[in-house]
Automatic annotation (TrEMBL):
Protein name: DNA-binding response regulator
InterPro entries: CheY-like_superfamily, NreC/VraR/RcsB-like_REC, Sig_transdc_resp-reg_C-effctor, Sig_transdc_resp-reg_receiver, Tscrpt_reg_LuxR_C, WalR-like
Modified residue annotations for 4-aspartylphosphate: 54
GO MF entries: DNA binding
Keywords assigned: DNA-binding, Phosphoprotein, Transcription, Transcription regulation
Signal peptide segment: none
Taxonomic lineage: Bacteria, Bacillati, Actinomycetota, Actinomycetes, Micrococcales
Pfam families in UniProt: GerE, Response_reg
Span of domain HTH luxR-type: 154-219
Amino acid sequence: MTTVLLVDDQALLRSGFRLVIESEPDLEVVGEAADGRVALDQVAALAPDVVVMDVRMPGMDGIEATRRVVADHPSSRVLVLTTFDVDDLAFAALRAGASGFLLKTARPAELVDAIRTVADGTSVVAPRVLRRMLDLFAPHLPAGQAPDPGGAALDPRLSALTPRELDVLRLIAEGASNVEIATELFVSEATVKTHVGNVFAKLGARDRVQAVILAYECGLAGSGAARR
């Protein structure tokens, strides 16, 4: 059973989400909160598998709440809700450690699928959607040190990666799926999965979202990155 905490300042939305989620036999809503501060208390008390988090709330917003949940309760994963498909606050929540974002206008089936995906440890931001978000907000990211023309990463955060793992990370940041990466690098999908797992482990990234953001921050991706 996957347990869920609903965090939104609109009671009507929480009720709607609860009805959708609890219609699924493998999902259970264990609590609700109307702001980030109450959400933190609920996470500490209930240890939900997934926190469905609105980013725009009075008091402590979803960004700060997400940052604290990720730092203090790493077993609880955060799925942020947003009204717009490219929302600067949703993007900030991803940088704070959320595992993905979902539009509030999503269909019920999309909501429950997203919750299951996040609970399984995978991000729910489609790679190309994430890339569009990062391209839009890249000017606001901390300036990283771009790789040199020979492909060796100069940013110390990437120093542990092998050349092949750097290639994999660069392709992830370009929005490529595992199948597309396998085709590009002429290796099997199983090999790609191994490389992706190693990249996440070495970077301390929980999922693709965090890995892509770090690639942009380090200059491996984006307008300032060196071309292959």
